[in-house]
Amino acid sequence: MEAIANFIDTVNSYVWGSDAVPYPPVLLLLLGVGLYLTIRLGFMPIRKIPYAFGQLFNHQHDKDEGDVTPFGALMTALSSTIGTGNIAGVAVAIAVGGPGAVFWMWMTALVGMASKYAEAVLAVKYREVDGAGRHVGGPMYYIKNGMGSKWVWLGFVFAAFGVLASWGTGASIQANAIADAVRANYGIPAWATGLVLAGAAGAVILGGITRIAAVAEKLVPAMAIAYLIAGLICVAINIEGVPAAFGQIFSQAFGFREAGAGISIGLILLAMQKGVARGIFSNEAGQGSAPIAHAAARNKDPVNQGIVAMLGTFIDTIIVCTITALVILTSNIIDPSCAPFVRPELLTLPAGCETSSPLTVSAFEEALPGIGNHIVAIGLVIFGFTTILGWSYYGERCCEFLFGEKSVLPFKISWILVVFGGACVLLLERDPEVTDVVTLFWSLADTLTGLMAAPNLIALLVMSPLVAKMTKEYFDRKDTPDA
């Protein structure tokens, strides 16, 4: 067990980073590809943000082939990205990397928009229609159809990592996090939460992408708006701390501490490492998951759907993560003059994971005593449940690519069982061996999620000339409205 754990930790360090590997190759590749695509596209994803919001509710593609509306595809993709990373990930980035980490999260999101855009463009262009009439796509399909038969194996590698990661990150881990939050705050036993989660998830995912999107279209905006309102109330209560919060973000991003202390190169590197890692972990730009949802959109124009898709990164990180950061930085629990930047007791996290954050709870409680913890707990529950829904579709499509259409129903059944089992693991947590296994599984799921990105990033680089060409043609067309 120890040897396996050490191996997984080593691999994980090369994906997401660690003290021994502060600049992991996979993480740098994710950021590098995003930056390359941003430059190659002439910064279009950033320049066209207002245009993208205008296309979000454009009904010109309502009669196009596809399974869900472009908005429904975006909400399905967002359902899997707006989650624990927006609550706990931001807190950990600030606690370890300092307020400056928030700036690098923003930069990661801005270049990540190009990755998310390119993924969706290729997903729609190279999607297929399966025997059941579903529009299926994603990295495995654009690798197969866009890069040629000699690269099919790479598509299978992505799909294999996708199935494993979906069972881990999407099903068991999210169910475990939800059950833990519900039990800690409301005393509800894990098995009961597991039953409710499995039943609710089954009722949605058995209906396919149409039902998942229908739920996501309602639940994702509602939960995001509610969380943003709660966060804005907290910020308004501590409004006098907002200028100082932004000052800390910008100054520490470039290594400045308090007046007279000069520039700290170590502080710059720490802020960059934690900000980039948590930013990519939160919005999944370049990972290859979101294009699986966007491939089902009723949109015959790949570039148009890509423009809608890139908003996912903007909403997830620039909007939602920023609210969490401001709630934390305007509270009285941050000490920007030292590292770690908060009291040690606020950094206590469940073994091997980041499913809850005492730091975020403390920040909300400081502004809203008595109800702040409920805001975070309910947010974790709803965010986690929608992540279960979104990842179920990703895993289903990867499974179909590997084993054919007949594997879809068995996969859905396995998903429901894994969701229940993930919640019920808490019943055995007092057993040290079980605790070690759970910690190991968290680390493995984290690693697999990151490894999904490698085949996808190769495809994005190889087909970047095509994406750039299609983009130019789209905006050169005279019939492109308000472009």
TrEMBL record:
It is a multi-pass membrane protein. It is found in: Cell inner membrane; Cell membrane. Keywords: Cell inner membrane, Cell membrane, Membrane, Symport, Transmembrane, Transmembrane helix, Transport. InterPro entries: Na/Ala_symport. Signal peptide: none annotated. The chain crosses the membrane at residues 20-39, 151-168, 188-207, 219-239, 254-272, 307-334, 375-395, 407-428, 448-468. Pfam families: Na_Ala_symp. Gene3D superfamilies: Amino acid/polyamine transporter I. Belongs to the alanine or glycine:cation symporter (AGCS) (TC 2.A.25) family. This is Alanine/glycine:cation symporter family protein. It comes from Ponticaulis profundi.
